[in-house]
Design brief:
heterodimer; A: about 120 residues; about 60% helix; elongated; B: mainly alpha; two-stranded antiparallel ribbon; 2 strands; about 5% strand
Amino acid sequence: MEIALACLIGLFFTVAIYLLLSRSLIRMLLGIAIIGNGVNLLIFTVGRVTREVPPIVPDGEYAPLEPIANPLPQALILTAIVIGFSLFAFLLVLTYRAYQELDADNTDTMRVAEPEDSPRPPLSY
Amino acid sequence: MSDLPNNHALLLIALAPFIAALFAPWVNRFARPISGWILATVPAAIFLVLTTYIADIAAGGTKNFAIAWVNSNYFPLPINLSFYVDGLSLVFAMLISGIGTFIVTYSGGYLNGHRHQGRFFSFILMFMGSMLGLVLADNIMTLFVFWELTSITSFLLIGFNHNKEASRRAAIQALVITGGGGLLLLFGLLMIFAVSGHSELSTLMRDPNVLRDSPFYLMVLLLVLGGAFTKSAQVPFHFWLPNAMEAPTPVSAYLHSATMVKAGVYLLARMSPVLNETVYWNTILPIFGGITLLTGAIMALRQTDMKQMLAYTTLGSLGMLVMLLGLSEKVAILAALLFLVAHAFYKGALFMVVGAIDHESGTRDLTEVSGLRYKLPFTFIAALLAAISMAGFPISLGYFAKEEIYLLFGPENIWSMLLVLVALLGNGLMMAAGLAIAIKPFFGPKLETPKSPHEAPLSMIWGPLVLGVLGFAAGYYITDVGEVFFGPAATAIYAKLVEPHLKLHFDLLLVTLSVATWVVGGLAFYKLDAIRSFLRRVANVWRWGPDQGFDQFMFGMIRFADWITRVLHHGRLEFYLILVFVCLAGALFAPLVIQNALPEIPAFPNLRFYEWAILAIAALGLGAVIVAKTRLVAIVSLGIQGFAVAMIFLLFGAPDLGFTQLMVETLSVVILALVMTRLHLDQRDARVLEEAVRDGAIAIVCGFGFVALLLAVLSVELDTSLSEFFVETSVPIAHGRNIVNVILVDYRALDTLGEISVVMTAGIAILALIGIRLGGPKRGIGAPKKLAPKPRQPKRTTARSKGARA
């Protein structure tokens, strides 16, 4: 079962990296969202997957009666999802503002911080 | 460390100048006219302390001090702050503190009224402390630290007139060359420790053959020579020394003639017992020393600037010292020591004389001053005394130094005979330069000078006078001086007992050679103008030298750094990302390939049909994001893959994750749609086919890398002890039935707090981003007020995701 998930995760990363390498900001943003999902699935799969048994202790028991899904990666992923969304929202607004101020959505044309023709260093003491 | 009792005065000797340097600016501010005299008490006191050691050292004793500095079990080299005094250290330390006393008072007069005089005192005292620490150091790391400190303080002193470009250039040049040599020396010292196992010089000396017998001998030798030759300005590293004359004259007198440039000679002398008497040593040192001697002596005659003349004769003298040490003979070592002390006396005095002439008449060009002997009578006497010692007339110390050198002349050894002839020629030419400085400015018709000349103040004139007299006093009492100072020092270098037995005696051969020297010197002095114009014509033809080469080297470095920056830091985001992902692919595959851990392809998975369906939907969504032609399709496709992920979480026993993912995906799609429709952004791919293929290839390799990594990880047994702990203790300890929830709010509560802080920070940052308007009136689309609700959305998400967990 893991092989199928592994291949899907590989696809997530492939698509995400392909999108990140495009110079269009909005496509890079899509790539960020996808790579986040890919990482979450990766952590999930590394913790081994089981079918349909959530990590919950039944009422009146002190420990689960049957084998359950690994709760540790789930806790990690839960945090990761929320933080990933914060990052996504922030980047989205950043893109929006960059477009407003620079009138550009292509990284090739966004060169305020590192201008193309920066001055040469002085050759003297 | 040695077992001998610690002599704490040694620590004080090395540290006192640094402490004085701390207070020098205040002393200068509150006692301006006499601050030089006050500060000079520090080196004077050090000198007096050192005199109390003379008897013990002459009797063959040593003084020690050692405390552990940096010692670690993990680092084999014990770094101690340790000092010791033997004959060699004593001679150097007394020269440094004694001449230092004169220099400090001299600086008081020379820089009187200079607004940075206090700073200057600080620098020169720091230098003095570094130099004393260097010659007293026992531990090789202590030696290195003080060695580097002399380079740094020398940089500060050369660049003291920092508003002059020539000063800045000279300072950087000196720092680069001596600092580069320092690196070689560091490597050499570490090699010495690695080869011999001794971290203290005093114990290394008791194991004399350990380096010579090692296969790394040549490497150690070359590294040590790299340090010594750069510091002592041997050809081809000589050019920084004449340039360093940009410094104020007290600095030139102190650092660049009497002390710092001799640090390299000190190092060679110190290392002689363990490195000398080999073919390499006996060949390399005399050749470089001899070339430096002749270069310095000849170039000195080309100058009309008296400081430059002295700088080049200093160069020649350093060459002489290296040449003599390179002979590894008792007589040569004794001669080197005599020459070293005599040179420190007369050259220090001559520099101070030139500084006095410069200070009082406003020029130091040999052709512009003349007839000053009645205006500056004491300066004239000092100059004459120094020049006589430099020329080596009896009974000055210079005379005995010269005689001792000529003792090496013998028909049985062609090599040393040749070197003596080189020394003779060099001595003669340097004598001419010395005579020129002592005679030309003081005799002849009086010339108009920029300033009306008058005698220098006492603070500037007592130093050269005392040094000049000392040159003769030491010559007069040569037998005693030899036994007390030169014997122990030569013993330290030669590693066998040396009894000097110096006295005035008559030897036909020596007299002949002496007379020959004087004839050469006299002729050169008589024909000085002709020689100078000839040398200048030669120099005009042959312009290119290591000095210009240094500039080319420095500019080349700057251009190279500029080129590297432009290549690596070009500002093209896509290339940064390509580099990152190519490296990522390498990092994914390399360990698997190297450790031969590439996973085998597992059997075809046995999934239920709805599981297949969900996976297919996710893949479909991903594909649709890439090929989408319109914004809406792209957004919806993003939503599809997100929801598919949520379904996967649900199917495989993680309902909490599923709910949270569902919420987050919904929100993402909504705000993405909001922004994208507002912006009218074009989400279509702008890449041409080649770029798309290149990027696609990188992405596919990375994707396969992750699959391989995941399969490799899955083939290893999972350590579930942590998970088991959580499962077992969830109800008994934390009283919660949802184990994931318990982990988040109990076991990792602080992490969750951090997560909430991140969300809050992102919300505030978004608010700020929307609020900020660069450059006045807003352009583009969307007023801030309309967008104000948006920053609240992530916070709302938090609440919902928490709700999903509950």
